[in-house]
């Protein structure tokens, strides 16, 4: 098989340049990967009082050092090779870190250098590609941001609009679902929900879709930014198997994440059922009722720019009405929305502050509701809008936020509204409630009042029950 030169960047700041092989450098192999570097001790569903914080919020047993691709050590010897460097496939990490991410990118780089082209996936409304190894094993799924639904290079005939415009979900802009895929992975502390390793990467000279046949125009869209996620081997999705097969802890763990990130699109097709027996495709042979584990994928429609109507497939599943376990309640109590906000600001600076505020509000809501004894279904119902006489009504959480905003004197700390705030306020016309129109002083007052009102609401519900 023909091998192509390529550069692989396993560091966010720079990549390796293309080299010529030295006479004294023997290129033994393309990469030497310690299989242990991708091992993570998954957080258990039960935690001791003393070990919970370490187990839930740190992925332990990660090898911090690992072998990178073995590339020749000499520099370019000819101008022709220097020019050809830009025509070879390359992949570079834009955002994302840790051994599992680096290992994933190296595997994809090896596949690209070996001449194995990514395969387009027919399902979904946006462009998605699966990378396979030389042996045919699925490695990862890439989703270029310019091939999202409605985006200019959408390969499914649903494109034509520029990045940054309102997308399928008006509260999430075209081209910004990839950063939300990464955000869900970063917020899944300890891997509780099982979001696969995800990064934001830059592909150069990769055979992705381009909507024009003009080669000059095609060159303008290269390189491409894409989300890259570890492929999950699975037997079915949740819609093919049915909720009676799923474990309570798996449903709860996904639900806890969905509430925190206000997931607008948690449907049965993006919850994968882990595969247990590769030699038998019979559902009854592979799975036992109540024990199958789910893996959540496709988080591009989370963290909207304003409070929007979520969709939780698990809302009416029987597992959602079972009370949280002690370990789940402890996990929720340890969540720190302000620490999570700083993680997103640091790791994903392109994520808008109004979306980060949605995370903070939803996490506070979850923590208070769980502390008051509400189950997953109760919390999901309070966050979901209702329909009455063909009219969509605001959710209970939205009504609480409206009440809080109405109680805040506008212009706190004598800060004036700038153009960005005016733009955010106009979004309320879509039916959602914006948190981005509050200046810093108003936002701090909002959080203080919100916390007090929530406490009263849940205390009242507890007395009624």
**Shape call:** globular
Can you summarize the main beta sheet?
A: 7 strands, mixed
Q: For the terminal residues, how far apart are their CA atoms? A: 69 Å
In the predicted model, the low-confidence regions spanning at least 5 consecutive residues are: 1-7, 9-83, 278-284, 412-428
Number of strands: 14
Helix content: 25-40%
How large, in whole angstroms, is the Cα Rg?
24 Å
Enzyme class: transferase
Protein name: 1-phosphatidylinositol 4-kinase
Family: Belongs to the PI3/PI4-kinase family. Type II PI4K subfamily.
Keywords: ATP-binding, Kinase, Nucleotide-binding, Transferase
Task: Give the topology, please.
Layout: E1 7-9, H1 52-57, H2 79-84, E2 90-95, H3 99-113, E3 119-120, E4 129-132, E5 138-144, H4 177-187, E6 198-204, H5 215-220, E7 224-230, E8 234-237, H6 238-241, H7 248-261, E9 271-274, H8 283-286, E10 294-296, E11 306-307, H9 326-334, H10 337-347, H11 353-371, H12 376-383, E12 386-388, E13 391-393, H13 396-406, H14 419-426, E14 433-434, H15 440-464
Parallel strand pairs: 1-2
Antiparallel strand pairs: 2-6, 3-4, 4-5, 5-7, 6-7, 8-9, 9-10, 11-14, 12-13
Domain PI3K/PI4K catalytic: 115-416
GO molecular function, one term: ATP binding
EC number: 2.7.1.67
Describe the protein in words:
The protein is an alpha+beta fold. It has 15 helices and 14 strands. It has helices spanning 52-57, 79-84, 99-113, 177-187, 215-220, 238-241, 248-261, 283-286, 326-334, 337-347, 353-371, 376-383, 396-406, 419-426, 440-464; strands spanning 7-9, 90-95, 119-120, 129-132, 138-144, 198-204, 224-230, 234-237, 271-274, 294-296, 306-307, 386-388, 391-393, 433-434. The strands form four sheets. It has a seven-stranded mixed sheet, with helices on both faces. The longest helix is centred in the C-terminal third of the chain and has 25 residues, at 440-464. The protein is globular. The protein starts with 6 loop residues before the first strand and ends with a helix. This is 1-phosphatidylinositol 4-kinase. One of its GO terms (molecular function) is 1-phosphatidylinositol 4-kinase activity. Residues 115-416 form the PI3K/PI4K catalytic domain. Its EC number is 2.7.1.67. Keywords: ATP-binding, Kinase, Nucleotide-binding, Transferase.
């Amino acid at each position: 098989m023909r091998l192509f030169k390529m550069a692989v960047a396993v560091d966010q700041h720079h990549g390796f340049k293309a080299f010529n092989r030295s006479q004294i450098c023997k290129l033994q192999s393309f990469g030497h990967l310690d299989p242990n570097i991708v091992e993570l001790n998954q957080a258990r569903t039960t935690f001791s009082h003393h070990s919970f914080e370490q187990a839930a919020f740190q992925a332990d047993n990660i090898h911090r050092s690992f072998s990178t691709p073995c590339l020749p050590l000499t520099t370019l010897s000819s101008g022709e090779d220097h020019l050809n460097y830009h025509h070879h496939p390359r992949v570079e990490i834009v955002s994302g870190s840790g051994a599992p991410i680096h290992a994933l990118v190296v595997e994809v780089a090896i596949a690209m250098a070996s001449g194995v082209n990514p395969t387009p996936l027919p399902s979904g409304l946006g462009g998605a590609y699966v990378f396979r190894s030389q042996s045919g094993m699925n490695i990862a799924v890439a989703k270029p941001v310019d091939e999202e639904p409605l985006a200019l290079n959408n390969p499914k005939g649903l494109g034509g609009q520029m990045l940054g415009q309102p997308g399928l979900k008006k509260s999430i802009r075209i081209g910004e679902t990839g950063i939300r895929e990464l955000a869900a992975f970063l917020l899944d502390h300890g891997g509780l929900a099982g979001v696969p390793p995800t990064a934001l990467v830059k592909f150069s000279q990769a055979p992705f879709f381009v909507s024009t046949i003009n080669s000059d125009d095609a060159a303008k869209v290269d390189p491409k930014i894409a989300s890259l996620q570890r492929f999950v081997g699975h037997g079915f999705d949740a819609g093919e198997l049915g909720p009676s097969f799923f474990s309570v802890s798996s449903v709860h763990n996904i639900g806890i994440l969905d509430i925190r990130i206000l997931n607008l699109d948690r449907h049965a097709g993006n919850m994968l059922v882990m595969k247990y027996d590769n030699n038998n495709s019979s559902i009854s042979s592979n799975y036992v009722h109540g024990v199958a584990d789910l893996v959540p994928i496709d988080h591009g429609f989370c963290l909207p720019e304003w409070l929007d109507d979520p969709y939780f497939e698990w809302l009416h599943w029987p597992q959602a009405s079972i009370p949280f376990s002690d370990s789940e309640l402890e996990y929720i109590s340890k969540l720190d929305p302000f620490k999570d906000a700083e993680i997103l600001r640091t790791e994903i600076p392109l994520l808008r502050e109004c979306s980060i505020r949605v995370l903070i509000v939803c996490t506070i809501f979850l923590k208070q509701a769980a502390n008051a004894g509400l189950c997953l279904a109760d919390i999901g119902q309070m966050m979901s809008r209702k329909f009455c006489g063909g009219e969509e009504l605001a959710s209970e959480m939205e009504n609480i936020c409206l009440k809080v905003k109405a109680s805040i004197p506008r212009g706190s700390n004598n800060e004036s509204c700038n153009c960005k705030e005016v733009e955010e306020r106009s979004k309320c016309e879509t039916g959602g409630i914006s948190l981005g129109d509050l200046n810093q002083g108003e936002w701090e007052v909002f959080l203080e009042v919100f916390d007090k009102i929530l406490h009263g609401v849940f205390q009242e519900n507890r007395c009624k029950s």
